[in-house]
Design goal:
By secondary structure, the protein is mainly α. The chain has one domain: Ferritin (Up-down Bundle), CATH 1.20.1260. Helices cover 79% and strands 2% of the residues. The chain has seven helices and two strands, in the order αββαααααα. It has a two-stranded antiparallel sheet with strand order 1-2. Strand 1 and strand 2 form a beta hairpin. Helix 1 runs antiparallel to helix 5, helix 1 packs parallel to helix 6 and helix 3 runs parallel beside helix 5. The radius of gyration is 16 Å and the shape is elongated.
């Protein structure tokens, strides 16, 4: 798939997951209808957050090794540090609450999407990988906010999980704004 259409497909599929439209990459998702709009359980949310954190760290390491722009390096380092911290917090809560992450369609689709972004970053030149990364960060964090708001928060019943989830949401919003600011400054 050409790079420009892969970004469109990526955005469409993340929004489909977040909003429950029942489609991913233009085809029906594994769960459609009311089930696709259902809140994620805490165990499913832990798996989704783990997938997001690992994906962000993986992409950031790739960019940090290749990017030529200082802003991309700064964003990558911030993503490595903060997503590692977020993963530790979620792991502690999960352990303390005896919640085992539950694999689900959302986390599986997110893993596929990270693989698509990774391929786009690998295909980008060293000079353009930073811009490509920052664009992906704005999109991925915007879509993660929708997923948190529409699927995770409604399914979070344990107040001890709602607290770290609220901190994650605030961090995701800050990451999106930071990446957008860096893109705006580069123009």
């Amino acid at each position: 798939m050409p790079r420009s259409t892969s970004w469109i497909a990526l955005l469409a599929s993340i929004m489909a997951l977040a909003c429950g439209t029942g489609t991913t990459h233009g085809s029906p998702s594994a769960s459609s209808g009311a089930e696709s709009r259902a809140p994620l359980s805490e165990a499913q949310s832990v798996d989704v957050l783990t997938t997001i954190n690992r994906g962000e760290i993986d992409l950031a390491r790739l960019v940090d090794a290749r990017a030529t722009s200082a802003s991309a390096h700064e964003m990558a380092q911030m993503m490595i540090t903060q997503h590692t911290e977020a993963q530790s917090e979620i792991a502690v809560w999960s352990h303390d609450a005896s919640v085992t992450p539950a694999q689900n369609d959302v986390s599986s689709e997110l893993a596929r999407q990270v693989a698509a972004v990774r391929a786009d970053l690998r295909a980008a030149s060293d000079a353009s990988v930073g811009h490509t990364y920052l664009v992906s960060q704005v999109s991925m964090h915007r879509d993660a906010l929708a997923l948190i708001d529409h699927r995770m928060i409604p399914g979070a019943h344990d107040p001890a999980f709602r607290e770290p989830l609220a901190r994650v949401r605030a961090a995701v919003s800050a990451h999106m704004a930071h990446a957008q600011h860096m893109l705006d400054d580069a123009r």
